[in-house]
Automatic annotation (TrEMBL), chain A:
Stored InterPro entries: EEF1E1, Glutathione-S-Trfase_C-like, Glutathione-S-Trfase_C_sf
Organism field: Neovison vison (American mink)
Database matches in SUPFAM superfamilies: GST C-terminal domain-like (SSF47616)
Protein name (database record): Eukaryotic translation elongation factor 1 epsilon 1
GO cellular component term of the entry, any: cytoplasm
Transmembrane segments: 106-124
UniProtKB/TrEMBL annotation, chain B:
Protein name, entry field: Methionine--tRNA ligase, cytoplasmic
Catalytic activity: tRNA(Met) + L-methionine + ATP = L-methionyl-tRNA(Met) + AMP + diphosphate
Annotated gene: SYMC
Species lineage: Eukaryota, Metazoa, Chordata, Craniata, Vertebrata
CDD domains tied to this protein: Anticodon_Ia_Met (cd07957), GST_C_MetRS_N (cd10307), MetRS_core (cd00814), MetRS_RNA (cd00939)
GO biological process: methionyl-tRNA aminoacylation
Length: 140, 900
């Protein structure tokens, strides 16, 4: 899924109505959002966090310091590890790690659904469906 | 909270700086772990720094840890900071880790290091100056500044890597570096050793993927079945049905092999092994074996192929060896040439010629090229300062001096090149030089020498490269090495030496000198061919018709890609120059290097004594071929690959397919009626076969081997799903189905035997004998999967192909070849030993600290008596001190670790 399509999907699920236009930058097609009242924003997770705030759903970024840091950690994981030029071996490791991380959790931060869950889900979508092994990742 | 750090891990910098800035640091415990320790239970790969929170959660991202410290002190997240941190993680880090790896681990300098990060540095500089803010996210220093500063500090603290023209970056960096928390973090992590303090950590990290070529993956792609169109399936099945008919007649064997106009003529060379060393597994995979796979593949394609190699015999090393053993140099060469030849014969290397460089042809051709260079003005004369060992009464050849590398400080640098950083060295530049024979310190003396005027030839070289490189299969490392040489500018290169054992220099005043081996060693290929056929020039002066593939380890690239082409271009005699230069990275042994002197590693002559067949060695070495990155030979892994890939996958499939034919169908291949599933399988196998061809045409040997294993995996699944062994006992329709499955399976086995031929020639021949595969089908591999064993074909006796390797067998081999000693790598041993000296004790103390911490917290919560609290706090502090001691790691006092 191209980043722009992903962000549009996120806008919908956040209940944002106006629909932003995104451009893409460079060879990795990094999304760029031109905001009305400021400079443009670049990067998938940056824009996503911005949209969450726009929709007044800050709780999706975590409520405590710990949750906030964890949400950002997994957002970073999404853009560095999941979107990297992953080969099969990496994907396998990644799913295995995630599976054991989720062993005792419902969502990435524990019990609260956050933006990290949404973006990691979008990012992993294409791999998970084929891998019955990673039961926990799938349930999540 | 507990923060886990590791000596020299760059992530510690921003984390410590952020921790220093934020409040409430009192609760932060710091533990040092080894660079390969897995702290986070759910992560497969080691990662530091890591922050374990009181809730038990882990933060394993450097930025997230820093963010957490900032959040604790009341800071609020904002878009601009998020943007900087996302940029840091996705853009800056990949570039920076490449740069740091080049600098710290490979000892590179200048533009090699700055190149990868220049764009990122410019981006920061522009952002700072455009917004005319002193800090990244505004008027005050904030999270983004700390994270980026911490990432950049190891590199930028060396003014050489902080480009002056980037003024805004400059002042931002200086401002941050002068702040107290940053300063303290820098002292703790770099210990005033500068960037080299990162070495114990970075050395343990895999080399970051070549920064420019990030998209190229070395791992096999998707094993999932691709979707096929009806058309593809029909084409594959049509080709299959044509069977043996579509095979062209076999090429008649020629002797000698000569280029044929209008055909694809492939000339393959493997780097010439130096005669007085027994080659180790790394040498074997690096050139001889890799070239062999390609030569065999090339013959399977019916390309007109000549594969040559030989021993490189001239030079002082030989002279010295001769003295040691009380023989003449010629006798030494004869002796070791035979040893080499035997080893390669045992490994089943299919040379057309395995020659040597000490022949009259070598003298003739070398002198001819030299004369032509001389007449055309490409030879200079100059006086050279040279190392002379007074005790041995002779000038020391490069290989006979050892000392400290002037570039990277590696202690065992040779006189011509440093094994560590790969830079070429002028022997007199070595620090603390030593004569390798008598260990005394040589003196500098001057002597007249001849030089190849490379600067004058540079333009021709660039023109040639410009024509040759695009679209060729030069490996990325070879391109990179040549590019960096050209960027640094070529210098005249000395081509003579004060020796006796070499090709004489045909020039007055130089009667007592010989050519330097690196001028004439590459000419060895020509002279070896000339000893094979008097029509050698049809191969070597025929660039239009000949495709030259040269195989070597990467340290040989400059001589094959630069020095020889320059000599040949300067000689103006229409020489055939390398079309595809195939260079491997290095193979390590277990966790260290192969070392003859320390008896570590497997050497060519020992492999035969292990009882493990040559083909198994070939398979494993090719499976781990250092293609694109360094790799390591590991006994355990060899056992694993043998037992899983060969025995359970490949061997199992081929054996079952054959056994079904003999057991259920009396040894005759049954009738096959392909269902749509079977047709699909034929198409999938065809596709994988084509993938194999694509890879081998690009000399991606290791990856192509994966295709073979993939096909056999498909085969195993196919047999499993269709349960031929059950159906054979069922109805007529079931019996027919069993026949089709068996027939198709045994044909896949036949195909595999041919695909396997370049890798495991003996196993391939065994399979073909068992299946009685018709002759042309054994020696030709087309791009389509054919039915080469038609219904009614009688096969021979089927027997198992591979043997299981047992743990104790492998364990005793590991002991024997010293891998055990190499398990504790020499350099970082100090660090790790200290950090993990008594892990149990550390664990006990950690638990106690945690327990005591709880007691203190509870007392405080209950607002207990002050004295009581103080007493418990004292206990806690004492425990923490003990813990720090046990971990060998009070962070405040640098341990003063010395480089080896």
């Amino acid at each position: 899924m191209a980043a722009a399509a992903e962000l549009t999907l996120l806008e919908k699920s956040l209940g944002l109505s106006k629909g932003n236009k995104y451009s893409a930058q460079g060879e990795r097609q990094i999304p760029v959002l031109q905001t009305n009242n400021g400079p443009s924003l670049t990067g998938l997770t940056t824009i996503a966090a911005h949209l969450v705030k726009q929709a007044n759903k800050e709780y999706l970024l975590g409520s405590t310091a710990e949750e906030k840091a964890i949400v950002q950690q997994w957002l970073e994981y999404r853009v560095t590890r999941v979107d990297g030029h992953s080969n099969k071996e990496d994907i396998r490791t990644l799913l295995k790690d995630l599976n054991s991380y989720l062993e005792d959790k419902v969502y990435l931060t524990g019990y609260n659904f956050t933006l990290a869950d949404i973006l990691l889900y979008y990012g992993l979508h294409r791999f998970i469906l084929m891998k019955p092994r990673h039961r926990l990742v799938r349930n999540w | 909270m507990r923060l886990f750090v590791s000596e020299g891990a760059p992530g510690s910098l921003p984390v410590l700086a952020a921790a220093g800035r934020a409040q409430g640091r009192a609760e932060l415990l710091i533990s040092t772990v080894g660079p390969e320790e897995c702290v986070v239970p759910f992560l497969t790969r080691p990662k530091v720094p890591v922050l374990q929170l009181d809730s038990g959660n882990y933060l394993f991202s450097t930025s997230a840890i820093c963010r957490y410290f900032f959040l604790l002190s009341g800071w609020e997240q904002d878009d601009l900071t998020n943007q900087w941190l996302e940029w840091e993680a996705t853009e800056l880090q990949p570039a920076l880790s490449a740069a740091l790896y080049y600098l710290v681990v490979q000892g590179k300098k200048g533009e090699d290091v700055l190149g990868p990060v220049r764009r990122a540095l410019t981006h920061i500089d522009q952002s700072l100056s455009r917004r005319s803010c002193p800090f990244l996210a505004g008027e005050t220093e904030s999270l983004a500044d700390v994270v980026l500063w911490g990432a950049l500090y190891p590199l930028l603290q060396d003014p050489a890597y902080l480009p002056e023209e980037l003024g805004a970056l400059h002042s931002w960096f200086q401002t941050l570096s002068s702040q107290e928390p940053c300063q303290r973090a820098a002292e703790t992590v770099l210990k005033q050793q500068g960037v080299l303090a990162l070495r114990p950590y970075l050395q343990k990290q895999p080399q970051p993927g070549s920064f420019e070529g990030r998209a190229v993956s070395n791992e096999p792609e998707e094993e999932e079945l691709a979707t096929l169109s009806e058309e593809e399936i029909t084409m594959a099945v049509t080709a299959w049905e044509k069977g043996l008919e579509s095979l062209p007649p076999l090429r008649p064997q020629q002797n000698p092999v000569l280029p044929v106009p209008g055909e694809r003529n492939v000339l393959i060379t493997s780097a010439l092994p130096y005669v007085n060393n027994v080659p180790h597994l790394g040498n074997i995979i690096g050139c001889v074996l890799s070239a062999d796979v390609f030569a065999r593949y090339s013959r399977l394609r019916q390309w007109n192929t000549l594969y040559l190699c030989g021993t490189d015999e001239y030079g002082t090393a030989t002279e010295t060896k001769a003295m040691e053993e009380g023989l003449t140099p010629q006798e030494i060469c004869d002796k070791y040439h035979a040893i080499h030849a035997n080893i390669y014969r045992w490994f089943n290397i299919s040379f057309d010629i395995f020659g040597r460089t000490t022949t009259p042809q070598q003298t003739k051709i070398t002198q001819d090229i030299f004369q032509r260079l001389l007449t055309r003005g490409f030879v200079l004369e100059d006086t050279v300062e040279q190392l002379r060992c007074e005790r041995c009464a002779r000038f020391l050849a490069d290989r006979f001096v050892e000392g400290v590398c002037p570039f990277c400080g590696y202690e065992e640098a040779r006189g011509d090149q440093c094994d560590k950083c790969g830079k070429l060295i002028n022997a007199i530049e070595l620090k603390k030089p030593q004569c390798k024979v008598c260990r005394s310190c040589p003196v500098v003396k001057s002597s007249r020498h001849l030089f190849l005027d490379l600067p004058k030839l540079e333009k021709r070289l660039e023109e040639w490269l410009g024509k040759t490189l695009p679209g060729s299969d030069w490996t990325p490392n070879a391109r990179f090495i040549i590019r960096s040489w050209l960027r640094d500018g070529l210098k005249p290169r000395c081509i003579t030496r004060d020796l006796k054992w070499g090709t004489p220099v045909p020039l007055e005043g130089f009667e007592d000198k010989v050519f330097y081996v690196w001028f004439d060693a590459t000419i060895g290929y020509l002279s070896i061919t000339a000893n094979y056929t008097d029509q050698w020039e049809r191969w070597w002066k025929n660039p239009e018709q000949v495709n030259l593939y040269q195989f070597m380890a990467k340290d040989n690239v400059p001589f094959h890609g630069l020095v020889f082409p320059c000599s040949a271009l300067g000689a103006e005699d229409n020489y055939t120059l390398v079309s595809h230069l195939i260079a491997t990275e290095y193979l390590n042994y277990e966790d260290g290097k192969f070392s003859k002197s320390r008896g570590v590693g497997v050497f060519g002559d020992m492999a035969q004594d292990t009882g493990i067949p040559a083909d198994i060695w070939r398979f494993y070495l090719l499976y781990i071929r250092p293609e694109g990155q360094d790799s390591a030979f590991s006994w355990t892994d060899m056992l694993l690959k043998n037992n899983s890939e060969l025995l359970n996958n490949l061997g199992n499939f081929i054996n079952r397919a054959g056994m079904f034919v003999s057991k259920f169908f009396g040894g005759y291949v049954p009738e096959m009626v392909l269902t749509s599933d079977d047709r699909r399988l034929v198409a999938h196998v065809t596709l994988e076969l084509q993938h194999y061809h694509q890879l081998l045409e690009k000399v991606r040997i290791r990856e192509a081997l994966r295709s073979i294993l993939t096909i056999s995996r498909h085969g195993n699944q196919y047999i499993q799903v269709n349960e031929a062994w059950k159906r054979i006992k069922g109805s007529e329709a079931d019996r027919q189905r069993a026949g089709t499955v068996t027939g198709l399976a045994v044909n896949i086995a036949a195909l595999l035997s041919v695909m396997l031929q370049p890798y495991m020639p003996t196993v391939s021949a065994t399979i073909q004998a068992q299946l009685q595969l018709p002759l042309p089908a054994c020696s030709i591999l087309l791009t389509n999967f054919l039915c080469t064993l038609p219904a009614g074909h009688q096969i021979g006796t089927v027997s198992p192909l591979f043997q299981k390797l047992e743990n104790d067998q492998i364990e005793s081999l590991r002991q024997r070849f010293g891998g055990g000693q190499a398990q504790v790598p020499p350099m970082p041993a100090v660090v790790e030993a200290a950090a993990t000296a008594a892990p149990r004790q550390v664990q006990v103390l950690m638990d106690e600290v945690a327990r005591q911490g709880n007691i203190v917290r509870e007392l405080k919560a209950q607002k207990a008596d002050k004295n009581q609290v103080a007493a418990e706090v004292a206990k806690l502090l004492d425990l923490k001190k003990q813990l720090a001691l046990a971990e060998g790691k009070p962070l405040e006092t640098p341990k003063g670790k010395k480089k080896k």
